[in-house]
Amino acid sequence: MDGSSDRAPFTLRSYGAARTVTGSRHLITTPKTSVLLDCGMFQGRRHESTERNRHVPVDPESVILSHAHIDHSGALPSLVRGGYRGPIHATSGTRDLCEAMLADCARIADSDAKYINRRRLEEGKRPVEPIYTQADVDQTLKQFVTHGYGETFDVGPGMRGVFRDAGHILGSAGVLLTIEGGPRVYFTGDIGRKMYPILRDPEPLPEAEVVLSESTYGQREHEPVDLAEDKLRSILDRAIEKRGKVLIPAFSVGRTQNLIYAFAKLQDDGRIPQLPIFVDSPLARKATEVFYDHPECYDDELRAFMEDGGKPFYPPNVQYIRDRKDSIALNQRDGPMVVLAGSGMCEGGRIVHHLKHSLHDAKNTVLFVGWCAPWTLGRRIVEKQKEVKIFGRRIRVRARVRSLRAYSAHADRTGLHEFLAPAKERGSEIYLVHGDEDTALAFADELRERGHAKVTVPETYAAYSLPVGARV
């Protein structure tokens, strides 16, 4: 393979999110050290996901975490469970979100193991262990070392790092690595959108000989926000007319907070009707508390909204559900109402229970506001399959299914081109990760057509030689 080498002094190897979207794990190795960029959870077919998330086949000397989303952070406790005791470099916002998110993952892993073991014990088979436990999460949190944006820190012998605001979710960061005798490498993490609510815009691409960039929406453009607001108004008007429910499978971190803020602004302006909104996710409630505790990350628009008396995270018609019995009670409650619940891909969490009780009813609406991976329940519903299986039961899908793309926190195709444009004049090598294979390959072709000299879409586990002798 052109450019690949296991013996080169500076190498890049992706152990996840190569020609796929989830499970971000990228190892940079030098003669003096090795650093793992992200250690995310893989999402896909259940057996494959379990095996890839239980065992992380890499032994780095340090870890740098771009942000707290589970596809970037969720396998950290597995790495620690396997014996890793080095530092995990992150921003303070990322660390605080991980405290809630990784605990939630441990709880789900324990619940999944108990469910599987009930059947295994009946069949006389040995029980399985959860992929990790709360004890592994506690140890992982002890290994976090936090840094502010713009603060230079030592990664390992001959390597320094500095975080730059990625504008994706609270605490999200790209990291610029300066390697002695080797290249400057900029890992984008997930690139945010300009003028996106709550957070500041992503900082521009810094000078670097190598850019390791996400490509999630490399072939898609997001809807304008004003068009999405019109659609949202229409959906809510129908819910009021039909006395139906609007179920929104939403990622608990980032997407939920942005949606609540969007509802609050539109309601304050009188542009959408005010009706009960329930956030049915313990993780979303905890994550919202973290957002509230980190005003240093807010953009000017949010600050102005709050100065005018706005309540971006706690509007009066929004209720955060705490107890499971209150969640169950929502299934017996008549609409109109909005329920936001995790997870965004409908692979777990309370949204699955709400779908079980509401998908069959034509007066209800399921509103997707994010991407769903193949093989997930969310993808099957988005594809408008007539019937889906939930908890072993086949459910007819009679509810309306709608999607809004305006609330994605990722840069779209135009945004990615704009962000990466400076790399062309600098002659930077670009490696595209965190994108479906077809999307990443097509986006790579577009970058080459626009004059980028070297663009590579890495394959999983393949080693790629990075340039030597670059400026330090």
Summarize the structure.
By secondary structure, this protein is of the alpha/beta class. It has helices at 46-54, 70-73, 76-81, 92-122, 134-142, 225-242, 255-268, 282-292, 300-307, 324-330, 350-358, 377-382, 413-420, 422-426, 437-449; strands spanning 11-16, 25-29, 34-37, 62-64, 88-90, 144-146, 152-156, 159-165, 173-179, 184-187, 210-214, 245-249, 277-279, 318-320, 337-341, 365-368, 387-390, 393-396, 400-403, 429-433, 454-456, 463-465.
Looking at this structure, what is the CATH superfamily of the largest domain?
Ribonuclease Z/Hydroxyacylglutathione hydrolase-like
Whole-number tally of structural domains: 2
- Work out the strand percent: 15-25%
Largest sheet: 7 strands, mixed
* Contiguous helical run count: 15
User: What value does the average pLDDT take?
Assistant: 93
Highest CATH level, the class of the largest domain: Alpha Beta
Helical residues, percent: 25-40%
Which architecture of the largest domain does the CATH hierarchy give at level 2?
4-Layer Sandwich
What is the CATH topology classification name of the largest domain? Metallo-beta-lactamase, Chain A
Q: Termini distance?
A: 28 Å
Radius of gyration: 22 Å
Class based on secondary structure composition and strand pairing: alpha/beta
Contiguous low-pLDDT stretches (5 residues minimum) are none
Shape: globular
